[in-house]
């Protein structure tokens, strides 16, 4: 697959995040509906946390197995473990620091817009690593696999757009420009990762970006659930959380069946 084709496919994979963003402009919703949308989005985020951590820890486990069998240096294990732990800590604690500064300035703490931006940033870091995978597969000549990855990541990004936008139904209606900016933040790194991945391979870089993304999304998930609890709809909220989680897993199972 040529570099130009890789760039185009990476761009298409990232653009699908825009499909779910218009949800953020829905208004005149009941309390139950707002709780359902917020916690369904949290279910998608919960799946992504699991998925990202699984991807990030895989190189660490591989290095550990290689070192245990004498086939690899112990230094790789240490470097990968340190990168894994520090990147998660940075992703989580940087948002804690940011939110504390926001709460110091605003009595009501983080707004729905703040949560949406944080979610988009976390997903953007995740999607950068997905773009790296597309670029690396295309550069290695695994064209069929690269195409499967593009289709799979495009489906994932469509659900991620919903995850970003759903909390916005509880605050002031976002402008189309703001939604477009969220799409660029969340989906644009897929394109960037594809460009870089075509000519540069670094498992350590993938660990770092995945770890930061996981840490950021852990914080965002907690904020989403805190917002959901304000609606006092525990049964509806938990059902929606389960639906969002299972829907995300369903997408993942489809991709595995397709050979991704």
Number of domains: 1
Q: Order of SSEs, N→C? A: HHHHHHHH
Q: Cα distance, first to last residue?
A: 17 Å
Using the CA coordinates, give the radius of gyration: 19 Å
Multimerization state: single chain
Structural class: mainly alpha
Instruction: Write down the overall geometry.
Output: globular
User: How many helices does DSSP assign?
Assistant: 8
* Biggest pleated sheet: none
Strand proportion, as a percent range, falls in under 5%
Find the count of extended strands (DSSP E, 2+ residues).
0
Low-confidence runs (pLDDT<50, min 5 residues)? none
Helix content: over 70%
What's the pLDDT, averaged over the residues?
A: 82
Tag the structure with descriptive keywords.
260 residues; mainly alpha
Concise summary:
The chain contains eight helices and no strands.
What does this structure look like?
This protein is mainly alpha-helical and 260 residues long. It has one domain (3-258). The chain has eight helices and no strands. Helix 4 runs antiparallel to helix 5 (143-165) and helix 4 (112-139) packs parallel to helix 6 (176-199). It is globular and about 60 Å long. The two termini are 17 Å apart. The model has no long low-confidence stretch (mean pLDDT 82).
């Amino acid at each position: 697959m040529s570099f130009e084709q890789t760039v185009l496919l990476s761009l298409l994979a990232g653009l699908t995040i825009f499909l779910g963003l218009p949800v953020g402009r829905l208004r005149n919703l009941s309390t139950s509906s707002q709780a359902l949308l917020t916690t369904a989005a949290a279910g998608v985020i919960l799946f992504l946390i699991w998925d990202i951590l699984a991807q990030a820890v895989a190189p660490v486990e591989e290095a550990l197995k290689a070192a245990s069998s004498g086939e690899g240096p112990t230094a790789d294990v240490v470097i990968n473990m340190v990168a894994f732990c520090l990147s998660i800590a940075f992703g989580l604690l940087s948002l804690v620091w940011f939110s504390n500064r926001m709460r110091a300035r605003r009595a009501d703490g983080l707004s729905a817009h703040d949560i949406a931006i944080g979610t988009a940033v976390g997903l953007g870091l995740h999607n950068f690593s997905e773009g790296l995978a597309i670029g690396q597969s295309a550069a290695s000549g695994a064209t069929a696999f690269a195409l499967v990855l593009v289709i799979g990541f495009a489906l994932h990004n469509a659900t991620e757009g919903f995850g970003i936008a759903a909390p916005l139904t509880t605050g002031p209606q976002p402008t189309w420009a703001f939604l477009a900016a969220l799409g660029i933040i969340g989906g644009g790194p897929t394109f960037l990762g594809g460009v870089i991945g075509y000519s540069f391979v670094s498992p350590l870089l993938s660990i770092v970006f995945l770890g930061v993304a996981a840490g950021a999304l852990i914080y965002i998930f907690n904020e989403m659930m805190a917002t959901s609890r304000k609606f006092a709809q525990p049964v509806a909220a938990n059902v929606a959380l389960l639906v969002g989680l299972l829907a995300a897993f369903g997408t993942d199972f489809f991709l595995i069946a397709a050979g991704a």
